[in-house]
Design brief:
Length: 273
Amino acid sequence: MKISHSSTAPALDVIESLPAHSTRPPILFIHGANMSAWCWGEKFMPYFSALGHPTYAVSLRGHGQSGGQHQLASNSIADYVTDIQRVVSQLEMPPILVGHSLGGLVVQKYIEHHTVPACIILASVPSQGLLPSLVDLAFYNPAFYTQFNLIQFFGTWSSAVDVARESIFSGHVNDDVVIRFCAQMQPESPRALFDSLWLGLPTKKNPFHLPMLALAADDDVFFKPQHIKATAEEYGADYINIKETSHTMMLDSHWQDTAQAMNEWLEKQALNG
């Protein structure tokens, strides 16, 4: 699927994995900082498509194969919310939203003014923003903190495979997965990151009382389980801490534990058939 450009917004690339027979609501996956839609296509989209969900993943403007590369630095969280609105408007029915990391913050902002059947945030930017997590990262993992900052300015070539494996994966993950992850990393919008520190944080906490799940990764060096739990409490959301899993929950060695927890939660919400 391709969302055409308009006078105010660039074209968006949306990858999809569709079941032979759709029996469950669609899911729209939203990637985090420095990434694009491909990270969902490896494991999660085939998994949920096999369960009967039409699945879609968008590359936000300036990311992956979407347009707006030259305007990346000026992208705001509000722009990313607009991207989600544009994709949702093209689907036959409102999707379940799943956002990872910075994409989790985009979901939090989206549901301030829009309803969906349910939303799930994975290793998300907490409702209080990036600052506490960045302070923790600088103190406890200075090597990856340095790499993280280099990526914002220089992109792929500064991404060290060994540092990435140690910092954002856990357990045995094949080398090709880690290498592909590093190769796909790109600079993120400084404006969006600044929004994540202060100006773009949510001001309303789930005003429509949507079914919501917040998933933490027990080994996450970015967003500690206690930060995710506090976010869940603010939203009245359910909370699950996935053990032996790190920040890249959709690609990690225990990705199936995360996907299964999501599916079981959706079944309890009567959203899986």
